[in-house]
Amino acid sequence: MHRGYHPLLIILAHAQRSLAKTVTYDWNVTWVFASPDGFGRPVIGINDAWPCPIVEADVGDFVSINLNNQLGNETTGLHFHGINQISSNFMDGAVGTNQCPLPPDHAVNYRFYADSPGTYWYHSHSMGQYPDGFRGPLIIHDPDDPYKDDYDAEVILTLSDWYRDQTPTLMETMINPNNTQFAPPLPNSTIVNDGGNTHISVKAGKTYRFRIINWSAMFSTFIQFDSLDMDVISIDGSYVKRQSAQQLRVSAAQRFDALITIPGDADRNYPYLVALDINQDFADKDPPRPLVYLLNVTGMLVTDSDKDTSGILTVDKFEPFDDSTFGPYDDEAVYEPVDKQLVLNFDYCYDVNGYPRACFNNSTYIAQKVPALYTAASLGENNTETAAYGPVGAFVVEYGEILEIVVNNNNDAIHPFHLHGHQFQVVTRPASQTGNWSAEDVSINDLPPRRDTVAVNPKSYAVFRIKADNPGVFLFHCHVEWHVEMGLSITLIEAPDKLRNYTIPQDHLDACDAMGIPTTGNAAGNEDWEDTDGFVTVPPTTYTG
């Protein structure tokens, strides 16, 4: 069943929430020195420790995080990836969209209802901080898990590319007029569990639920376990019908939950391979670089530590399971009829200063002064005027409408696209080199899988649908972090009539006051929505983090 509103369900939900327990975390965001790949560098940690901690709750709990910015030299904000934030859009954590930057020596509380089970993650949604380490697992356990009798234990497995330079340095190199190839920074390493132990203790005859999370800044990862199948049961927090796969491609921000059974007669250890996806983004166009990249990690499922643990898994070629073909566990049919369609053409572009950017429909996202949610909450009936939000790609969808989003990827590389606030239905995602979407040629899946991040193949497209039943302001963006910083985002204004006079928590408003940012009015803080004086119309040419 989709996550929607029904009057009786709302009453029951409020009753359940009144009885819910609260899981509380007190966090200071701090710099930590770490060496996940053997080379030391500053990373962003929690309470002077890194990797960042796991957040765990049960369905029906409230999660409360008291976040105190002790970085000293950077603002921040915290997003809970995959959490739809129903009735709590101000907790979505996207700086410039749902909140102001949180300045050093200031604190805010993030509190949300754990309405849906699954494997999620949290990360900074500010100035490219999550490649600098500000990220961690977020697990919502399900007492009614339909697969709970099929496994004995759980394992969290995180995958990531890794950079030895900090994000501001990398961004200054990429967003630069000399970068005429729009080349992103290439990682130095691949790390598993943020540089932790790649050896996982298992027992013969037992089945494990692997919660696989890719929180790379850029690259998809391939994963394969030696001679062991992965029975996928959930994608991005959405149950699917159990499906066996030998190999998965996990794009940046995606999650797969898979059951892996260790043979009862196991007499050895089992290596597994994590490999960065070899695609065109590894190739400099001038001069060309061969499409070979050896940033792979071999880990080990260890049944007996006295046996060999030094084995390497060799894979002749990558043929990952097509994740667009998973069937939803609940057999929810495709949303129909479509009320509104948004077609987004992705390509690279230049801004007026000649700096390389990433664009939807020839426009790049430019962050404004006032968070878009605050504009929607304060402009009354004028909050449907997309021009009031400035050049953030605002698109309005009314409550209850079925919205179809088409993404045409005109690039030679695969790109993961993420929508906040929804698990969308992936109604079609054809192969590479298919070309752009055409209504006449599209064949849709009547029982499409749901997820929050879809990988769009090179020179191809994807089509997905949502039911606009979650009032709020939500970003839609590429989850290659470098492309987010280059402007590959739009802003969905969902059910604006239900956002008028929306109440923002006082501690969030206080953060704005500390930054000197207005909290009402249009993008520039003007009460007249048509007054564009003060709009930010040119992207900044410096990057300070």
Can you give a write-up of this model?
This protein is mostly beta strands and 545 residues long. It folds into 3 domains: 7-141, Immunoglobulin-like; 148-325, Cupredoxins -  blue copper proteins (Immunoglobulin-like), CATH 2.60.40.420; 340-515, Cupredoxins -  blue copper proteins (Immunoglobulin-like). It is built from 5 helices and 30 strands. The protein has a 6-stranded mixed β-sheet, with no helix packed on it. Strands 21-20-23-28-25-26 form a 6-stranded mixed β-sheet, with no helix packed on it. Strand 1 (22-34) and strand 2 (41-46) form a beta hairpin. The chain is globular. Residues 1-7 have low confidence and may be disordered. InterPro entries: Cu-oxidase-like_N, Cu-oxidase_2nd, Cu-oxidase_C, Cu-oxidase_fam, Cu_oxidase_CS, Cu_oxidase_Cu_BS, Cupredoxin, CuRO_2_Fet3-like. GO terms for molecular function: copper ion binding; ferroxidase activity. This is Laccase. One of its GO terms (biological process) is cellular response to iron ion starvation.
Summarize the structure.
With 545 residues, this protein is mainly beta.
Q: Under the CATH scheme, which architecture of the largest domain would be assigned?
A: Sandwich
Low-confidence stretches: 1-7
* The CATH fourth-level homologous superfamily of the largest domain: Cupredoxins -  blue copper proteins
Q: How many whole angstroms does the radius of gyration measure?
A: 22 Å
How is the main sheet built?
6 strands, mixed
CATH class of the largest domain: Mainly Beta
**Would you tell me the structural class of the helices and strands?**
mainly beta
Major beta sheet, strand line-up: 10-9-12-17-14-15
Helix content: under 10%
Number of helices: 5
For the residues shown, what is the average pLDDT? 94
Cα shape: globular
Percentage beta strand: 25-35%
- What is the straight-line distance between the termini? 41 Å
CATH topology of the largest domain: Immunoglobulin-like
Number of strands: 30
What's the number of domains? 3
